[in-house]
Design goal:
By secondary structure, the chain is an alpha/beta fold. Helix content is 45%, strand content 15%. It has a domain at 62-195 and 238-321: 2-enoyl-CoA Hydratase, Chain A, domain 1. Strands 1, 2, 3, 4, 5, 6, 7, 8 and 9 form a nine-stranded mixed β-sheet that branches. α2 packs parallel to α3. The radius of gyration is 31 Å and the shape is extended. It starts with 11 loop residues before the first helix and ends in a 17-residue tail after the last helix.
Length: 352
Amino acid sequence: MDYQTTPSPPPHNQRLKGCLMGCLAVIGIGSVAVILVVLVFSAAIGRMGGKIMEAVDAAERNPGGEHAGLAEVWVSGEGMARVARVHINGVILLNNERLGLGNGSPDLALASIRRATLDPGVRGLILELNSPGGGITASDILYNAVLDFKKADPGRRVLALMNDLAASGAYYVACAADEIIAHPTTLTGSIGVIIQSYNVSRLAETLGVTDVTVKSGENKDLLNPFRPVDGERVAALVQPLVDDMFARFTGVVCAGRGLDGDAVRALADGRLFTAQSALDNGLVDALGYRAESEARMGELLGGFAEVDLHSYGYFGAFLRDSPIARKADELLCRRDPSHRHYMCYGAGRKGI
């Protein structure tokens, strides 16, 4: 009878050695992978910082325009009509500080509009507004910039899309658009001008606080909160300022909305309107969403079913020129030569 003998297991030290070698190999491979990831990430971060600084430096070197250094980024769409989307969010004030150039800031919006004005390939603007208003001068500057965009080419079109709130100065800016679309839940209107101050003269007297003011003329501290209000002087000197600015505001609404002065003044008591009420009173043209605004822009530009939508930003250039973006776009273009992505190198883009 033959007996098959079972081979004896390897000695314990050999098994331990094999396990140790396997663990070391895994650790070694993992370490190399981690190092490669860190190197790639560091290079990307370095490139990002370089692109940001290039954009900032370009803007600061340009003696005539804040639009220098703006990166144009493709957003959506494959239409032949190139359109710029510009966001205006928050209180409308122009402070010209670099920190004020974030997405949706009035400073970036103004720079974007002026950049689009200089680009003959941009056929339209979609202004997305979400603002309670702000300074009348800042609002007027943005309004005038939109008019300049249209004056540069009579074939251009501008459409305003209102989000949660588009009141006062934001409505002032919207009046430069050819058409206004409000979300169904938008609040808008607040057509009017206000100068506001506090008066604590009685409180100061109670607390024994004495105001000491040295001034060059009687009216220099007209709204001094530590002095009793002189109603006659306020009516004679401050109210006319408000009235003049108000007349300009209502004139802008009349021109933009095609309404007569009496109709506008009846609505311009500072009240807010719901979207439906604004539509009923001729303050907006339609209710809808972003998709409707883009479709309508295509119609305004000649019946295009789709537009080629872009936006601007000071800190987007590193995305366009990063190694990952270049490689991805190269592969997309190689697979589909008609690839419509803005970053498609060599494929080219054409607008009407």
